[in-house]
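Priority: medium. Attachment 1 of 2:
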C-alpha cells in the first residue's frame, strides 16, 4: 500500500512513524516549507521533516498546490491513500481526487464537536471532560467528512494544550492503523457527521493571550491551560510581559479588586491574583527576558509584586 503523508508539527510525527514501522510504503512526506526562526534567523525544519529525514523518506515542501506542477508531482508518487495530520494547508479538490482510497485526516477532537484549526484548545476552553481523535475522510469543506473511527481521551484537570495534544497524537497513531486496516479491507462504513451537533473554533491569535482580570477565575484558568504553550497567557508588570505558566482556581468571592496580587497562606502556590470572581492561584510564571520561576522564587526577586494591581 503506497501512502503519502502530509503533516508538520510534532503532533503528526507519531502517526508518520507508525505508518513506517507497520510496513506501509511511504512514497513521500509533505510538510510546510522551512521557516526562519530564532535570533540568528536560521532555517528551521518542521518536526515532520526531521522525522522523515531520519527514516530516509522523500520530503516535499510546496508553498501550496496552486501550481499544476506540484499536483503532477504528487500524482506521480501514485499514492493509493493520502494521510493528513495537522498539515497546515487546505487541499484543493484536484489533490483530494488523486488517491483511489481517498484522503484520510487525523483530527484531534470528537467530530463534529470542535471543527477548525484549534480543536485541543477549544476542548479545554469549553471545560470538556473528554476529548478524542476522529479519523475521517477529507471533503472540501473543512472537517466535515465522514468518520471512519473515533476514540475518546480524558481531559485531566491540569492538562494544557501541549500535554493534551501529546496524548491525542499517540492515541491518533494507533487509531490511524486501525482505520486504515478496516478501510482498505472494506470493513468500515463511514459515518456521516451530525451537522446539528457541529461546533467550530477559529485559529487562535496571539493577542488573545492577554488576561482580562475582570473575568472569573475559572475562565482565566482555562485560558492559561488552553493557551500553553502558544500564545501563552500574559499580563503586564513594570512595562514587561508577565506570562502565567501554571495556575489553579480558588472559587468564591474575593474581597479585593480584580488584578490585585495577594498572598495565599497555606496554599502551595503562595500567591494569588484576584479576579472578577474568585482567585487565580499562581504556581509558576515568567517575566519577559527571564526564565520560568516558581511563584515563591518570583516574589523573592520582585518584593513589591505582592499588593500591586495588574492591568486589565
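Attachment 2 of 2:
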Amino acid at each position: 500500500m503506497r501512502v503519502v503523508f502530509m503533516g508538520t508539527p510534532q503532533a503528526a510525527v507519531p502517526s508518520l512513524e507508525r505508518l513506517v514501522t507497520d510496513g506501509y510504503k511511504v512514497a513521500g512526506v509533505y510538510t510546510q516549507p522551512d521557516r526562519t526562526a530564532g535570533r540568528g534567523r536560521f532555517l528551521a525544519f518542521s518536526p515532520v521533516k526531521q522525522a522523515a529525514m531520519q527514516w530516509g523518506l522523500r520530503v516535499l515542501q510546496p508553498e501550496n498546490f496552486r501550481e499544476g506542477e506540484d499536483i503532477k508531482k504528487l500524482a506521480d508518487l501514485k499514492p493509493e491513500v493520502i494521510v493528513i495530520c495537522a498539515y497546515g494547508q487546505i487541499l484543493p479538490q484536484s489533490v483530494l481526487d488523486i488517491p483511489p482510497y481517498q484522503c484520510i485526516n487525523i483530527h484531534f477532537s470528537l467530530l463534529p464537536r470542535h471543527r477548525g484549526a484549534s480543536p485541543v484548545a477549544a476542548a479545554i476552553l469549553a471545560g470538556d471532560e473528554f476529548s478524542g481523535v476522529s479519523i475521517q475522510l477529507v471533503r472540501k469543506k473543512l472537517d466535515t467528512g465522514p468518520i471512519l473511527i473515533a476514540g475518546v481521551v480524558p481531559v485531566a484537570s491540569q492538562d494544557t494544550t501541549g500535554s493534551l495534544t501529546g496524548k491525542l497524537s499517540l492515541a491518533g497513531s494507533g487509531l490511524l492503523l486501525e482505520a486504515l486496516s478496516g478501510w482498505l479491507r472494506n470493513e468500515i462504513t463511514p459515518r456521516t457527521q451530525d451537522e446539528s451537533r457541529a461546533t467550530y473554533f477559529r485559529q487562535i491569535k496571539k493577542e488573545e493571550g492577554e488576561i482580562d482580570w475582570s473575568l472569573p477565575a475559572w475562565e482565566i484558568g482555562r485560558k492559561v491551560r488552553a493557551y500553553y504553550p502558544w500564545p501563552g497567557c500574559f499580563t503586564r508588570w513594570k512595562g514587561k510581559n508577565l506570562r502565567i505558566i501554571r495556575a489553579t482556581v480558588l472559587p468564591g468571592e474575593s474581597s479585593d479588586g480584580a488584578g490585585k496580587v495577594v498572598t495565599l497562606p497555606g496554599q502551595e502556590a503562595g500567591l494569588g491574583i484576584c479576579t472578577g470572581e474568585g482567585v487565580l492561584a499562581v504556581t509558576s510564571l515568567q517575566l519577559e527576558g527571564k526564565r520560568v520561576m516558581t511563584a515563591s522564587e518570583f516574589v523573592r526577586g520582585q518584593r513589591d509584586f505582592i499588593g500591586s494591581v495588574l492591568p486589565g
